[in-house]
Amino acid sequence: MSNATDLTRQGRLQEATALIQSLLGTPSGTPPETPPAGDAVEGTFTRLDDAAPAAAPASQPQRGRRTTPRAGLGETLRKIAAGGMPKRGPLPRAPVDVPQGAQFLSLAHTSAVGSRDYRLYVPAARPAGPMPLVVMLHGCTQTPEDFAAGTGMNALAEEFGCLVAYPAQPTGANAQRCWNWFNRGDQGREGGEPALIAGLVRDILRDHPADPARVYVAGLSAGGAAAAIVAAAWPDIFSAAGVHSGLAVGSARDVASAFGAMRGGAAGDRFGATLPSIVFHGTADSTVHPANGEAVMAQVLQGRPGLTPVAERGKTPGGRSWRRTSHAKPGGPTMAEHWEVDGAGHAWSGGRAAGSYTDPSGPDASREMLRFFWQHSKT
């Protein structure tokens, strides 16, 4: 990729394009295939909201289509040569309902590794004793406020009696606020973004009534890939993970392999065992190929012999058909759960129109994740 950048800066776009195509396994001389992430290497989203074309109202978003044309590879290279992907305009501040007695705190974690701002929702309906903590990692271009509004997780925190943390990825770390799931330095336990998230959790456990035996992490797209990484790196902190439209741990090691993984799927690393995980993926996801959901599940099932798969099918009132495959031992908790949402694109299933990149017609991923998480505890 550094060679491609140098060629682009010299104005030799055809040579740079051919080099990128060779990295992605695309034969030179054929029309360049647009990267699945549109104009962002890290992964962007199909926006499924009131701005969608009239042919696809918000309640029935276009299946597997983008509402804006993808940039060509040459244009993408120009943006790389300019020093990174351009920053999109700031998202409008999503309205976040905070009922009387609840708090939506603005906090920051700082350590030798670095710092991250985050929002912490503390419900008004607080149970006696420590509460579970759910860490939510937003997708590219999103903010904690936007992600909170779109997933509806704060309202569920009132219902289930839990804390919800929303770390913020700044543009200084990634121009489009993506978590850097494809960087080697952000895939391990020591240093990088996983260590920042773990440090943030320690702050919450120290300063708020959070239960250290019931800490969970979930995310969307780049945030989903990051959630899988954080869970694998810190199994002593987290009890379970939720991966929505994400990728397996180690599925990419740099920008070039990130393109390949997003386009067609990648198996990722092998583990002796991983944390219990619930996976959501739309079958029409054109940004992160659905094969990646299967790869995440295969990774979760490594080192877990004796689990019995049970498949179910259903359909939501919004019209989305879904298939769920659960893996458990007889009489035991579900250790892995895979939701495949028919016709859904790259968006949070069952999300709310108040936030970006949601599919309100799908099954409620937020509620299903909490149901799954509550089966698992360190004690």
Strand line-up in the sheet with most strands: 1-2-4-3-5-6-7-10-9-8
Mean pLDDT: 81
Q: Strand content of the residues, in percent?
A: 15-25%
Largest sheet: 10 strands, mixed
Total count of strands: 12
Q: Could you give the distance between the termini?
A: 46 Å
List the helices and strands and how they pair.
Blueprint: H1 2-9, H2 13-23, H3 73-81, E1 103-110, E2 115-122, E3 131-137, H4 144-151, H5 153-160, E4 163-167, H6 192-207, E5 210-220, H7 222-233, E6 240-244, H8 255-264, E7 277-282, H9 291-301, E8 308-315, E9 321-328, E10 334-341, E11 348-349, E12 358-359, H10 365-373
Parallel strand pairs: 3-4, 3-5, 5-6, 6-7, 7-10, 11-12
Antiparallel strand pairs: 1-2, 2-4, 8-9, 9-10
Report a brief summary of the structure.
By secondary structure, the protein is of the alpha/beta class. It is built from 10 helices and 12 strands. Helix 6 packs across helix 7.
Descriptive account of the structure:
The chain is α/β, with parallel strands linked by helices and 379 residues long. A 10-stranded mixed β-sheet has the order 1-2-4-3-5-6-7-10-9-8, with helices on both faces. A two-stranded parallel sheet has the order 11-12. About 22% of the residues have low confidence. The radius of gyration is 20 Å and the shape is globular. Helices cover 27% and strands 21% of the residues.
